[in-house]
Design brief:
Blueprint (H helix, E strand, L loop, with lengths): L1 E13 L10 E17 L4 E5 L2 E5 L13 H10 L6 E8 L9 H14 L7 H12 L9 H8 L2 E5 L3 E5 L6 E6 L6 H14 L1 H24 L2 H18 L4 H13 L2 E5 L6 E6 L4 H10 L3 E6 L6 E2 L1
Parallel strand pairs: 3-5
Antiparallel strand pairs: 1-2, 1-12, 2-5, 2-6, 3-4, 6-7, 8-10, 8-11, 9-10
Helix pairs in contact: 1-2, 1-3, 2-3, 2-4, 3-4, 5-6, 6-7, 8-9
The structure holds (3R)-3-hydroxy-3-methyl-5-(phosphonooxy)pentanoic acid (PMV).
């Protein structure tokens, strides 16, 4: 038996960090994908092969003993082969850069949950999402589940801590140019530094949250109208708020300046401190924006919104 699934990566368009304190964030799936193929095998083992390494273990190991980024796959395989009298082989192929805030681990969990569970039964997207979030918790205990949700359903999504997720049904037509700072970042330590900023600057932080909330409300309307110029202005404005939080640095600022010089607007996506930035473009300025980054030797690529989400074969 063989089963295959693929899931898109994601960017946070608006609201990172503020979302931790109750502000709404807007995320979208992008057309960079991870594909997972799962196969039942006769030997009693779980074998995972990927471009970041391999893992081969017998079933029923304590999950906390598995010190590997492939841990979520082991978790899923081990859970799903219970009572099935079979081993499992998993192949992972990815065109998503790893560990730079583009949701590679969530995409792994979603495609992994789909490919492995569908070896045994037809599983709904809702069930797959639930399994994927469980698997993601084996590496990020406090995940909100927002990344796995947008990877599963695709498109654009609003997320807030209290109300959860709401899929935005509009399909704006833009390209994002994503540039990678190649600085590794730890989401947890940057989230901690924002907490410290908040504790030292309660009034300023609360003012910023109000401004960010208003900005995200305005954005929902602009997405509906596909008003790319105003969306670009909001992206630039959101970046100014992130700068105040202290999550930017000289390299990211330089990259944002390059992005802003040719596109409609540019900002950090995700935790900051490193990782990626994106610039909002359409056909009129996509090539110029890409060239501007390339001429300055930055690793960049362009993406569109992925409206498909999880795909199974
Ligand atoms: O680095 P990423 O893309 O996983 O984004 C983290 C987003 C934060 O808002 C900074 C943290 C969070 O849990 O929402």
């Amino acid at each position: 038996m063989k089963s295959k699934a693929s899931s898109p990566a994601k960017v946070i368009l608006f609201g990172e960090h503020f979302v931790v304190y109750g502000v709404k964030a807007i995320l979208c799936a992008i057309n960079k994908r991870i594909t997972v193929t799962a196969e039942t095998i006769q030997e009693n083992k779980i074998s995972i092969k990927s471009n970041i390494g391999n893992l081969e273990l017998e079933p029923n190991k304590e999950i906390s003993e598995i010190n590997s980024p492939l841990r979520p796959f082991y978790y899923l395989a081990n859970k799903l082969i219970k009572n099935q009298n079979t081993g499992i082989q998993v192949y992972v192929e990815s065109d998503i850069p790893l560990g730079v805030g583009l949701g590679s681990s969530s995409a792994c969990c979603v495609a992994g949950a789909a490919a492995i569970s569908r070896l045994f039964k037809r599983t709904s997207k809702e069930e797959i999402l639930k399994l994927a979030i469980e698997a993601e918790r084996t590496i990020f205990e406090n995940t909100s589940g927002a990344d796995c949700t947008v990877c599963t359903y695709g498109g654009i999504m609003e997320y807030d801590k209290k109300k959860g997720f709401n899929k935005i049904k509009y399909e704006p037509n833009f390209h994002l140019v994503i540039a990678n700072s190649e600085i590794e970042h730890s989401t947890k330590s940057i989230v901690d530094s924002v907490k410290q900023f908040k504790e030292k600057n309660e009034d300023e932080f609360s003012e910023l949250c109000k401004k960010e909330s208003k900005l995200v409300e305005d954005v929902s309307e602009l997405l509906k109208e596909n008003n790319i110029i105003e969306l670009g202005n909001k992206i630039t404005e959101n970046q100014e708020y992130l700068e105040v939080l202290g999550i930017s640095n000289e390299k990211l600022r330089k990259m944002i300046q390059i992005g802003q010089s040719k596109s409609f607007g540019a900002k950090i996506t995700g935790a900051g401190g490193g990782g990626c930035i994106f610039a909002l473009t359409n056909e009129s300025n996509l090539e110029q924006t890409m060239n501007e980054f390339k001429n300055k030797n930055y690793d960049c690529f362009s993406v569109k919104i992925d409206f498909k989400g999880l795909d199974t074969f």
